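FORM 12-B: Structure-to-Sequence Request
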């Protein structure tokens, strides 16, 4: 399949490499061209967005957020009629609906296909993937392509792009809120004289146990600059959750406040588990 793949950041690079390994032909673009080098070394070719999409069987976008999608795709208006466009970018349900309307007006078939997971599962081809769109043939085409990096047991076909966007926000809400929960557990434990590693051990088997184990190394001593999912990225997604909800989300709001503190401390490009590390460091220094 000839694929135009726009956006080779941390996650985009891993997805593009999996697509190449599956035998697809890729033309790629990234605003910072140097970030596409690993994909180019693996056999992709570089092109600007307007050239990359010409005669592509599938256009895939993996960008930072809805504003970037609007700039690169909607405002530039680069997709020819007849294109199938799969947007991987984390966006709100309203954004997904707007992208779908834009595509329909231009006779472009649109599918929203966000991923669930971090860089490790991406490299292993074990990501969760939602494929949402109204055209069954397009869903099938996109499902075939994302099979290069999806865990078959976690590949879900949904009826609309907005459903896929909602599903992705639900998944990332779980990450943000459980990380906040572990951070608060470390704080509570510290108030009673428990070391952070003991708190993490005691959380095993609880509803916070998965996050406590998943981010244990980062929470205790691993360099958080080795980001699997950056603070900036999940803070952006958390804002999308709050904007999309028609009711208060107190736990999500608390998580965002912790993430914003990390951003203000200059840690936006660090792994989001920096909010756990902050509590661990305070506990050990108290």
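FORM 12-B RESPONSE
SEQUENCE OUT:
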């Amino acid at each position: 399949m000839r694929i135009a793949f726009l956006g080779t950041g941390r996650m985009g690079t891993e997805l593009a490499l999996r697509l190449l390994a599956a035998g697809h032909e890729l033309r790629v673009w990234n605003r910072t061209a140097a970030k596409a080098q690993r994909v180019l070394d693996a056999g992709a070719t570089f092109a600007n967005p307007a050239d990359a999409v010409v005669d592509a069987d599938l256009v895939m976008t993996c960008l930072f957020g809805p504003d970037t999608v609007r700039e690169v795709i909607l405002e530039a208006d680069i997709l020819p009629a007849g294109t199938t466009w799969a947007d991987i970018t984390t966006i709100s349900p309203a954004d997904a609906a707007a992208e779908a309307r834009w595509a329909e007006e231009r006779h472009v078939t649109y599918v929203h296909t966000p991923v669930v997971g971090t860089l490790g599962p991406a490299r292993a081809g074990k990501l969760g993937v939602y494929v949402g769109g109204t055209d069954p043939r397009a869903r099938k085409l996109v499902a075939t392509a994302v099979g290069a990096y999806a865990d078959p047991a976690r590949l879900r076909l949904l009826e609309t792009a907005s459903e896929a966007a909602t599903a992705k926000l639900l998944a990332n809400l779980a990450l943000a809120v459980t990380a906040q929960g572990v951070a608060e557990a470390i704080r509570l434990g510290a108030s009673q004289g428990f070391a952070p590693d003991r708190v993490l051990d005691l959380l095993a088997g609880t509803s916070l146990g998965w996050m406590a184990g998943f981010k244990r190394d980062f929470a205790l001593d691993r360099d958080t600059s080795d980001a699997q999912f950056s603070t900036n990225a999940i803070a952006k997604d958390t804002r999308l959750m709050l904007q999309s909800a028609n009711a208060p989300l107190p736990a999500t709001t608390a998580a965002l406040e912790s993430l914003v503190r990390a951003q203000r401390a200059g840690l936006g490009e660090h792994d989001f588990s920096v909010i756990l590390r902050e509590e661990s460091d305070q506990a050990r220094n108290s």
